[in-house]
Design goal:
The chain is α/β, with parallel strands linked by helices. It has nine helices and twelve strands. It binds adenosine-5'-triphosphate. Adenosine-5'-triphosphate binds next to strand 2 and helix 1. It comes from Marisediminicola antarctica.
Length: 260
C-alpha cells in the first residue's frame, strides 16, 4: 500500500473567502473515494488540489511523491487522470473520438497534430473498447450523446494509465439508462485489482458505482466525515451535511437517499 495523496491542514483562500479550511486527508493507492457535499462546499476545489492544478494557500499537499509548490508539475500531471465538464468544454467538437482519447498521451488539449506511435493508437483502441466506444472511434466528439461524451472523457483520462484518477461528477446530467451504463463500466473498472486510486465527486449517492471503498463528506470547506464508505454514508452524516432528515439505504453495493 502506498500513499497517493496526503493533505495536511490544507486551506484555500480565494478573493478573501476561505474555500477549504484546514483539510487533512490521506488517500492510499488501494482506495476509491467518493466526495459528497452541498453546493459550494469546496468539492471541486479539493479535486483541483489533488489534480495539482492549484496550490494550497496554507498547509501542505503531497500528490503522488511531490509536494505542491515545490515540485515541477511537468512530470506529475501525466501521472494523474482528470475528467470534468470544464475540461470537456475545451475539446474541439469536430475532433474524432479516437483522437480525443489518443491526445491524452501527450497531455494536451487544443493541439491535435502530434505524431502518434502505433503503441498509442493500439492503447487508445483498447481503452475505447473497454468503455464501449470502439464503434464510435471515427465519430466527431461534438456529435455524441451526453452519455457517450462522458465515457469518452473518462477513456481519455485513463489513456495514460494514471496512478491517480480524478472524476468530477461523471454521471451529472445523464438519463437513467446512460447513468446505469456508465456506472456499470466504471464499477467494473474501479473493482479491478489493477485500478488506480480514484477520487470521484458526485452530488448523489445513487451515482456511486460498485467498487468504491471510502467516502468523504465536505461541508463549508471542512470535512464532516471521512473513512470507509459504510461508516461515512449514514443518514446522520448526510442529513447533517445537507440540513435535512434523510433515510439512506444500501442494497447490493448501491446507495439510495431520500428525505425522511
Ligand atoms: N476563484 C474564486 N474566487 C472566489 N470564490 C471562489 C473561487 N472559486 C470558487 N469559489 C467559491 O468557493 C466555494 C466552493 O467552490 P467549489 O466549486 O469548490 O464547490 P463545490 O462543492 O464543487 O460546489 P458545486 O457542488 O456547486 O459544484 C463556492 O462558494 C465558490 O463560489
Amino acid at each position: 500500500m502506498a500513499r497517493v495523496l496526503q493533505l495536511s491542514d490544507v486551506s484555500v483562500v480565494r478573493g478573501g473567502n476561505t474555500i477549504l479550511d484546514s483539510v487533512s486527508w490521506t488517500v492510499n493507492d488501494d482506495e476509491r473515494w467518493v466526495i459528497l457535499g452541498p453546493n459550494g462546499a469546496g468539492k471541486t476545489t479539493l479535486l483541483q488540489i489533488a489534480a495539482a492544478m492549484i496550490h494550497p494557500s496554507g498547509g501542505t499537499a503531497v500528490v503522488l511523491d511531490d509536494t505542491l509548490g515545490k515540485a515541477d508539475l511537468f512530470d506529475l500531471r501525466p501521472r494523474i487522470g482528470f475528467a470534468s465538464t470544464a475540461l470537456a468544454r475545451r475539446i474541439p467538437p469536430t475532433e474524432t473520438v479516437l483522437n480525443v482519447v489518443m491526445t491524452a498521451a501527450y497531455a494536451v488539449t487544443g493541439r491535435w497534430n502530434e505524431n502518434y506511435d502505433d503503441i498509442d493508437t493500439r492503447r487508445a483502441r483498447r481503452v475505447l473498447a473497454e468503455w464501449k466506444l470502439d464503434v464510435l472511434a471515427d465519430r466527431r466528439f461534438g456529435d455524441l450523446s451526453d452519455g457517450e461524451q462522458k465515457r469518452v472523457q473518462i477513456a481519455r483520462s485513463i489513456m495514460t494509465d494514471p496512478e491517480l484518477l480524478l472524476l468530477d461528477e461523471p454521471a451529472a446530467s445523464l438519463d437513467l439508462g446512460a447513468r446505469e451504463e456508465l456506472l456499470q463500466i466504471l464499477g467494473g473498472y474501479a473493482s479491478a485489482p489493477t485500478a488506480p486510486a480514484i477520487i470521484m465527486v458526485t452530488h448523489h449517492v445513487e451515482e456511486i458505482p460498485l467498487g468504491f471503498s471510502h467516502a468523504l463528506i465536505l461541508e463549508a470547506g471542512g470535512i464532516r466525515a471521512a473513512g470507509p464508505i459504510h461508516d461515512v454514508l449514514t443518514a446522520d452524516n448526510l442529513g447533517a451535511a445537507f440540513g435535512l432528515e434523510l433515510v439512506v439505504e444500501e442494497r447490493d453495493g448501491r446507495f439510495a437517499a431520500r428525505a425522511a
